Amino acid sequence: MLDRTRARFDLDYPIESGGADRWFQVSIVPLLGATGGAVLSHREISDLKEAERGASEQTEMLRAVIDSTADGVVVADEAGRFALTNRAAREIAGVGIVDSDPTAWDKNFGLFRSDRVTPFPLAGLARQGCRFAAAPPGSAARLSAELP
After folding, report:
1. Contacts of 131 (CB under 8 A, 6+ apart)
2. Do residues 76 and 55 share a domain?
3. 79 and 39, same structural domain?
4. How far apart are CA 134 and CA 138, in angstroms?
5. Chain centre distance of CA 96
6. Residue 4 located in a structural domain
7. Sign of the CA dihedral running 57, 99, 88, 106
8. This prediction's pTM
9. pLDDT tens-place string over residues 111-129
10. Are 87 and 75 contacting, i.e. CB atoms less than 8 angstroms apart?
11. Which of 8, 48, 43, 14 is nearest to 28 (CA)?
12. DSSP structure class, residue 116
């Protein structure tokens, strides 16, 4: 750090205290003056680490619930990139749904409005709150989804 080859160094580390871990973060930033030196800061981040652990556990639980449902669930951004697909969605639409070009979804997956009958215009996929259903050509299976 003192030779200024790095702009910053951060390290999170636990210390066992009374049977529980307390988390700390140390940050080091070099001084830019002619005499050199560095600024070292040290802070406790136990609450942050606990919140991260809780969020991770909740995410894992929700993923398990979504994956265990028989309904296909798809979350896509406005550009059509998938943020989330569950097991049923991948089985209904096929594994290619994740890597497919959104402009070909109507041909590849048979997109319909949520009534599952009316063809869905691709231009509507970018609208917020968009709901649609999909079925691979020749399949009776249906995949319903809602885009943010």
Report:
1. 113, 114, 144, 145, 146, 147
2. no
3. no
4. 12
5. 19
6. no
7. positive
8. 0.55
9. 666 677 776 666 655 554 5
10. no
11. 8
12. S
